[in-house]
Amino acid sequence: MAVGKGTPANCGNRLIPQILDDLASAEPDRIIYSWARSSDLSQGFRHVSARAFTKAVDKTAWLIQRELGVKSEIRAVGYIGPHDLRQVLLTFACIKANCAGLFLSPKNSTEGALAVLEAANCNIWVNPAGERPTQLVNDFLQQRPMHVMELPKLDELLPEDESELENVEPFPYTKRWEDAINDTFCILHTSGSTGLSKPISWTHGLIGTVDAVRMLPPHEGMEPWAKGWDDGDTLYSTFPLSHGAGILMDVVISPLFGLHCVLGPRDVIPNLELISSLADHIKIDIWSMIPSLTDELGEAPDILPKLSRSKFICASGGPVSNVLGSKVNEFVRVLNLTGTSEGLFIGNLWVDRQDWHWFAFHPWSGFEFKMVEPGLYEQWIHRNEHAEFFQGLFHTFQDVNSFNFKDLYVQHPTKPGLWASHGRSDDVVVLSNGYKISPLDTEALVTSHPAVDGCLMIGSGKPQAGLLIELKDPTIKRDGDDAEALFSSIWAVVERANSLSLHKDQLHRDFIAFSEAGKPFIRTDKRTIKRRATMALYDDYIKRFYQSRGEDDNDAEVAALGLLTIDTTSLDSTARAVRHILASIVPAVKDAPADANLFTLGFDSLLVFKATKAVAAVTDLGGIFLPRNFYAGPTVKAITATVVRLAAERRATTTNGTITSSSTEQQQQDPQEAKIRALMNRHKALLSSKLGPMDLFGGNMYEGINVFIPLCPGVSFEQAYRVLQRGLVRAMEIVPALAGKVIPCSEHEIGYKKGDVRISLPSLPSTALGTSPSDEPRQLRFRDLSSLVPSYAEQRASGFLTSAYPDELLTTCPSFPDLPTDVLNVQANFVEGGCVLAFNVHHHAFDGIGMLIALTVWAECCRFVQGDQSATSEWLHPESLNRDMLSILYELEGFAKPASEVDPRVWGFLPYADPALKRKQQEKEEDTDMTEAAAANGHVTEPNIKRARLSRHLPKPPRLPICEHWPPAPRTDGRTLAASTFVISAEKLERLQKSVELAEAADPESQSLSKESGSLSLGDVLQAFFWRAAVRARQGIQDGPHSLFNNMMLFQASDIGPFGGDIFEAPEAVRVQMDWLNKAFRSLFILPMRKDGGVELLLGTLPEELDAMKNDHEFMQFAEFLG
């Protein structure tokens, strides 16, 4: 067993009262405690020497013995008092007088306090002189007979004139360690967050494990947590003395480690202002912080620099925000400790500063982390040969050999010995569908909102989780614009929490509720919410909350609301319906005046939701009539007026550039005027548009996909093709660009620049010219492949592999066409049982999302021509087809500037040479060479440091030649890439996402999207995972930067929608046309999500690249090669 430098003799076997007595003898004038004289810290501090302190302890011990007499058994002495030195004196005095201080939390319930007193057999109560007993004390003293004594004021126990203590006789404490190891040091109790509080006895043996930490040898370069708590350091703790961490810091660690302990003003709850003032007026080496204050410090840039003079902040007692704690860690190092009331700090180690949020534990601690679900581990401890000194829990539970803490952890993705807390297994919310949700991360993130004091996730046994939020100002009105803005800002945080959770969208906007003003959440001393007690307090509220959100309302009146006939153009009809709806919920509304306040009639926030839902359903205003409309005018009259207004606005909506209105309004409108407006809108949509920079970005090429669609039984190829033709004709009316051509601009155009391109659109059919639309669009071709390729069923069975047959069978579309060329090029390939649509669009006209939107419109139009009158594509806003929209927004937002003023590095992501930029590029490379030369001489700049860090994960980026030609030239060695497909199952996908997200949430050095926007989607995770694997496989092989990466997983093939009727079923797969891409690009695609929830990864590979990927353990533990 190692004994470090400065480790005291008998370390781990020392009794603190004897340590203090020895210190008073050896260094009587040494200052060991100080406290602020007033809340104005400029008034100074009272300092207490070792001699004066031990004299005061002895004085208090004699007082206790005179009051209680001498007995052989240790008696519990209960106490609740102010935050001053009397509790510290009482602790040591009780030990000397063969008693044990029992320190109750003043926030405990009467029932909880009585349970602790009974279990501890505590029949003695001490009241601090000069203080009025709390209501809690008065309540339990009425129910439990106790011997009550008074503890004198602090100035009497510890007078400022130390000479007044000269006559105090030493109170002997001569016990040996062997005799006292199992004696009680003091008694605390559990927080009561999971039920009634229970007493916890700290023995001298348990306290000895805190002392012994300094004897732990380093592990893998990490020192035990006690390293750096040096003799003479000044410590300030923000924890109350009724909390275990407060006693540990102010009563235990200070004398064990020889620290100078500072107490703040007795009547001031620790806050940022006090922290700032302390930093100004007294030297603090070590700060012990409650989690909430550590988080607040992260948002206090004016205070943090003051703390940079300190050694570190010890954060304990609960989870600290990774984001906010990292800001603190930039100024003053954060030591993140975790422990329990029963075992204290077991085996915690110092981790690297950048890993502050992670925990590391010494192997002698005996911890085991058992996986309870993929990526999530439960902490256990097993007794071993180091139990006496390093496993404090077994001093508390002497009859057990293993113990489940029920604390959940996640493991660091690249550093196996590091762990991050992830709540407790008994905090989990289990929904009625079996989903288990760990609420801690979500609750912590939502609580970071400046207006939120706390929140609880609810919903165990329910089909949908909810969130109960306690505002810092619970009196805030729930109506008006301010309230709506507040809710929207909170909802934005909830959405961010949703995006980080394992079960996406686990919280819905309609399932957010606010606590009642008169019912604050029940909390422990460290302000942790007592989950079970608060749930019990809100039991009825939560029941009514879910009843108001119920999909199946059994109330006969409400069920009959759907039979109401409402004319929302009539104020009287609407008023009758609104009153009927509201009266079905609160009967008093039936006979109340129209302007009566509905809240005085019995409505509350839960009933508002129910009423809003009913009104919206009956008036067809779902998503339009909202609770805020109710709050804005809580009367029948006001709600009626709002419904009529919203219904009128809804009728007068714009769809695809055409103003639609109610039948009454249409009858009143001049028919000729309506016809003129419709024709004008259609002509505007067909104006030829010049392509902008974003349109030209993709290059002169087609992008193509193959869509696999099953045919309904008995349908002929000709029937199906006819539906596709008719649907495409209609789709071209809705999206005119599908009928257009990409053509070079004339050099005679105003503002012409070389390379300018536009989309030329066909004119409208004209009676005067004798033109009519073709019902056989030239862009669509038919081909029967039933005798050349496998049946649809066989292709489905093989997974619709891209490599099953060459793309040239499916399409004759050129990859890099000469202009002019059609925007759309489609071939309908029919096989036995299905159709494979080879769908190609020119990249100047449509990007990937645009291509999918166009395909979705076509599918909907096919349903329309087969009789589905609801398939109108009204969801497609006409301005979404406006190619000038990006330029308009660019100008509007103020980002536009002449191209000559744009930094040439902006175009650095383009892998193509530009003579106009060559000179500046050469200058940039010369600067880079100078920077690298400086680095070689020891002058490393920050960017190089970051590259060095990244190099641990990926190889150094190769220097690849810029592409000089478009399209890129084929490989010089004549080899062609082959399409390779891998699949990640739904189960492995969930495991991958969870491990990465949890690691991202806990890693302060992570530079991911989640740190900046709070959003780390499944697409983000998978894209990074796939890209890393491909980069590793292609290292040393890739010969140019001409790579394409496309993430198509945001939808399933079926999301395109069925092509409808009795002809087609919904599409089952989408595949990229890879053959031509493999000749020009090194492509990677994440394909649309499969029905089973899995995702396929498609890329072009050379044989050695494929072998490298198949032998990549990190990749293949999640992926499976399909072919």
The helix tally amounts to 40
Q: How many beta-strand elements?
A: 38
Major sheet characteristics: 7 strands, mixed
Query: What is the fourth-level CATH superfamily of the largest domain?
Result: ANL, N-terminal domain
Question: Mean pLDDT score, rounded?
Answer: 80
Number of domains: 6
- CATH architecture designation of the largest domain: 3-Layer(aba) Sandwich
Given the helix and strand composition, which structural class is it? alpha/beta
Keywords: NADP, Phosphopantetheine, Phosphoprotein, Transferase
GO molecular function: transferase activity
InterPro entries: Adenylate-forming_Reductase (IPR051414), AMP-binding_CS (IPR020845), AMP-dep_synth/lig_dom (IPR000873), ANL_N_sf (IPR042099), CAT-like_dom_sf (IPR023213), Tri101-like_N (IPR054710)
Domain AMP-dependent synthetase/ligase: 24-357
Description:
The chain is 35% helix and 17% strand. With 1123 residues, the protein is an alpha/beta fold. The chain has six domains: 15-210, ANL, N-terminal domain (Rossmann fold, 3-Layer(aba) Sandwich), CATH 3.40.50; 428-548, 2-Layer Sandwich (GMP Synthetase, Chain A, domain 3); 556-651, Non-ribosomal Peptide Synthetase Peptidyl Carrier Protein, Chain A, CATH 1.10.1200; 700-888, 2-Layer Sandwich (Chloramphenicol Acetyltransferase), CATH 3.30.559.10; 897-972, no CATH class; 978-1121, no CATH class. The two termini are 57 Å apart. Residues 1-5, 551-563, 654-669, 931-952 and 1007-1015 have low confidence and may be disordered. Residues 24-357 form the AMP-dependent synthetase/ligase domain. Keywords: NADP, Phosphopantetheine, Phosphoprotein, Transferase.
